[in-house]
Amino acid sequence: MQQVPSTLDNPIAISLGDPAGIGPEVIAKCWDHRADFNLPPFVAIGDGRALAAVWDGPIEVVDDPSEADAAFDYALPLLQLSAAESDIPGHPSVAGAHCSLDSLELAVGLARSGSASAVVTGPVAKEQLYAIGFQHPGQTEFVAERCGISPSNVVMMLAGPTLRTVPVTTHLPLRDVPDALSVQLIESRGRAALRGLQRNFGIANPRLAVSGLNPHAGEGGSLGRAEIEIIEPAIAALTAEGWHVTGPHPADTMFHDRARAKYDVALCMYHDQALIPIKALHFEEAVNVTLGLPIVRTAPDHGTAFDIAGQDRADPRPMAAAIRMAAQCAMIRTEAP
Ligand SMILES: NC(=O)C1=CN([C@@H]2O[C@H](COP(=O)(O)OP(=O)(O)OC[C@H]3O[C@@H](n4cnc5c(N)ncnc54)[C@H](O)[C@@H]3O)[C@@H](O)[C@H]2O)C=CC1
Ligand SMILES: NCC(=O)COP(=O)(O)O
């Protein structure tokens, strides 16, 4: 298990996510097992009724994150946000979607102001958020906007013990992926991933492996020209800046053990190319970390799991991994010269 620094100045802010999902349960379980999981103090943000619906442990409502440290030993500190109505686990609602957005907004604000050392976001249901007018593909882009960063300069990285992946395109229909790819976008995502590994993970000379888009990375152009026309020029531009970059690699052969040993992060062209290998290898400990932000933001790599919400079946290990990684990244950034 990763060692977590014990001396963060402020707690980690954790948004509960959708109150009808498993976010409240896994956060509560993380507090229950805070010693075993080696977790630093954190404060939950959201509707306490969602916690009480799935957990009978102690909750201490606080007015400010600075009160969380003292409470953390005996209760789960909570910054209370009340939804218009309370949800039944497994049954998402409009009120719950609004509450999940409010808690995300507050958590990000606390990290931006320095009152929290980092943000960990609980899982939200994108369908529910889109239904209430959420204009961003996901929380990644929302956090980027709130931090004043262009979405093309932040990346969603999925990190597990033996693999890190970054999708160039995130939440869009597969048929739109080829048109969304450009030399500039691949370059900026690659650069953000490399800089992010330096800044958040302390890797001085990170190695990036770039996937192709087409089968066999295009087979020399006969199975598609994206590799020749878009991906190779982006790799050349990053290499010219002095970065260690290889590819385009056929995506089907770049994730086995020996291949993974040759790079620190894989840049993939679309969501499932990046997320299938990480979830297949590391579902219990994969962390979604946003690179390129002035703050640290991580999340467990699973969703709301409405199918098991309220049944005491949710595994808290991914949330615990997200909290530990947030603490480590925050500490590395604090210590950087
Ligand atoms: N970071 C985030 O906020 C994310 C949100 N989502 C959202 O979640 C919703 C549901 O997405 P799905 O594709 O169904 O993925 P999901 O991760 O919610 O569920 C997939 C399967 O894994 C199981 N599962 C997930 N987390 C688990 C845990 N901690 N312990 C035990 N079992 C677990 C679920 O019960 C389900 O069978 C979607 O609306 C999506 O937008 C999905 C991924 C990340
Ligand atoms: N599949 C990963 C995912 O949905 C996480 O997205 P985000 O909400 O963290 O941007």
TrEMBL record:
Keyword DNA repair: no
Main localisation: cytoplasm
EC number(s) stated in the UniProt entry for this protein: 1.1.1.262
Enzyme class: oxidoreductase
Catalytic activity, as annotated: 4-(phosphooxy)-L-threonine + NAD(+) = 3-amino-2-oxopropyl phosphate + CO2 + NADH
Cofactor: Zn(2+); Mg(2+); Co(2+)
Pathway: Cofactor biosynthesis; pyridoxine 5'-phosphate biosynthesis; pyridoxine 5'-phosphate from D-erythrose 4-phosphate: step 4/5
Residues that, per the record, bind substrate: 140, 279, 288, 297
Cofactor, how bound (note): Binds 1 divalent metal cation per subunit. Can use ions such as Zn(2+), Mg(2+) or Co(2+).
Keywords attached to this entry: Cobalt, Cytoplasm, Magnesium, Metal-binding, NAD, NADP, Oxidoreductase, Pyridoxine biosynthesis, Zinc
InterPro entries documented for this protein: PdxA, PdxA_fam
Cellular compartment(s): Cytoplasm
Binding site for a divalent metal cation: 171, 216, 271
More info: The active site is located at the dimer interface.
Quaternary structure annotation from Swiss-Prot or TrEMBL: Homodimer.
Family designation: Belongs to the PdxA family.
Described purpose of this protein according to its UniProt entry: Catalyzes the NAD(P)-dependent oxidation of 4-(phosphooxy)-L-threonine (HTP) into 2-amino-3-oxo-4-(phosphooxy)butyric acid which spontaneously decarboxylates to form 3-amino-2-oxopropyl phosphate (AHAP).
NCBIfam families: pdxA, PRK05312.1
Protein's name in the database: 4-hydroxythreonine-4-phosphate dehydrogenase
Gene responsible for this protein: pdxA
